[in-house]
Design a protein that fits this description.
The chain is mainly alpha-helical. About 70% of the residues lie in helices and about 10% in strands. A three-stranded antiparallel β-sheet has the order 1-3-2. A hairpin with a 5-residue loop joins strand 2 and strand 3. Helix 3 packs across helix 6. The N and C termini lie far apart (about 55 Å).
Length: about 130
Amino acid sequence: MAVSDRFPQAEGMCPHRLVMEHVTSRWGVLVLIQLLERPYRFSELRRAIGRVSEKMLTQTLQTLERDGLVHRDAKPVIPPRVDYSLTDLGREAAEQVQALALWTARRMGDVEKARQAYDEARDQQSRAS
């Protein structure tokens, strides 16, 4: 079943927004960053990412493959072997996502301070009302 068959409403979205959604989804981010290291077999990738269901990882990989970001290499051997790697387009996207992830880690202290200040200001407002 094609991705468009499973999610017909997604095809009506702005194409840029849809790709952004795929790249920045919870599992899309983790798949892209992990595949920056090297190609992975499905089970290796699932273990490396952790806490992702087989179904969700399969859907994420199919979506990223459809968008041209991930390459699926099925080898005709017994037992079957499938490797996943990034295309050039996928590597470019993964580098951008990784930069955002690194920025988030680096600036988390500032985000936490901003949240605390916001929460304190909201508390003061609600007490004053």
